[in-house]
Amino acid sequence: MAGKIFNKKIFFIILFGFILRMVFVLYLKPAFYFDDEHEYWKMVENFLQGRGLIVGENLKAYRPPLYPLFLVLFAKFGIGLKGIRISQCLISTASIYLVYCLGKRIYNKKVGILAAGISSIYPFFIFYSGFLLTETLFVFLVAWCVLSFIKLTEKNVLPFYGFVSGGVCGLAGLCRPTMELFFPFCVLFVLCTKQEMKNKLKKMAFAIAGFILVLSMWVIRNYIVLGKFVPGTTMGGAVFWEGNNPYSQGGPCRYFPEGVWQIEESKRDAVFYSLTFDCIKKDPHRFTLLLWKKFIRFWNVVPNASEYSGTLYNVISVLSFGLLIPFFVLGMFVPVRNCKTGFLIGIIAFFTIFHMIFIASIRYRIAIEPFVILFASAGFLWLVDSIKGKINI
């Protein structure tokens, strides 16, 4: 009986979340709102016109391929902006269910239900479902990746399932290369769990195989096009420069040395890294200050961008993410602590450190916010149970 009640609850939570997302996307104008949207659509147009999955002739591997290919599927069948936005509402809604599954698997059904409920009305998840950006698809893939690796560590799961876990992580990496760098930690997580060593090694081997297989076509394509091993993109150096150049404040900074974009793409990334390391060597103190600034930008409770810094945006952000923060901190230190919660802490720490080094924005935090919500839900329910216990309710 209890199981049926919980199933009804999660059904209505998911349905309500989908309705909220649909209301938002149908309210939007049939136009692009972000510069990145224009670049992704340019890739779609180039692909359909036979030029390949490129932004431009000197930007052939600048953007990761998965999201543009996702858009190509719609463009190929004449489905426009509204249809794409609706599909992203469905993906964002599916992420609510993944959050529920994570909460139930790591803690219990109560945590899963609460975390799913928060995710269904969480403004940032609703907001990004309306734009042609990687965020919605990436959140889904990251949550699925974490859930699949947590499932992989369970003793009754066959080693072959590791192929799925590795493959999903590879897909997440093709959506945003940050997850390619996190993959070794996923494998290490499997190694550190309590299972027979032979079984763990098999699971790790399948996970590595799945990861490599998914990435292989993109790597081969890049080698043919650029004559160089590029597992991710050629954007990393430019982003590193943006986050650490002499005029940077830790966020997007469109100052670039003259002539650098005319350098051959296969060599330009290394030039950007070299220029950035030179800046850091000349003023290491500024680099240290930027690390702190980027930490603040990443975890800011109000939007950093000036165009989203009005009263309404600030209030919405404070009353959503801001309210989660104290319970999130409580949830990390008080309730259930095991290798699974350690894995969640690991991905949160990894994304934080990565963006402190490169470039930071609350937009890049969105991928780990399902886990922030999980910890906050666990912390809140622990606090409620503790208060009930003390006053004997």
* The number of domains: 3
Please summarize the sheet with the most strands: none
Rg, alpha carbons: 22 Å
Helix content range: over 70%
Number of strands: 0
The stretches of 5 or more residues where confidence is low (pLDDT under 50) are none
User: What proportion strand?
Assistant: under 5%
Spell out the helices and strands N to C: HHHHHHHHHHHHHHHHH
Mean pLDDT: 94
Distance between the termini: 24 Å
With helices defined by DSSP (H or I, 4 residues minimum), what is the helix count? 17
Structural class: mainly alpha
Shape: globular
How would you describe this protein?
This protein has helices at 2-27, 35-48, 66-76, 81-106, 109-121, 123-128, 135-152, 161-175, 178-191, 197-226, 236-244, 265-282, 284-299, 311-333, 339-357, 362-365, 369-391. The model has no long low-confidence stretch (mean pLDDT 94). Helix 4 (81-106) runs parallel beside helix 7 (135-152), helix 7 packs antiparallel against helix 8 and helix 14 (311-333) crosses helix 17 (369-391). The protein contains 17 helices and no strands. By secondary structure, the chain is mainly alpha-helical. It is globular, with a radius of gyration of 22 Å. The protein folds into 3 domains: 1-133, no CATH class; 137-230, no CATH class; 235-393, no CATH class.
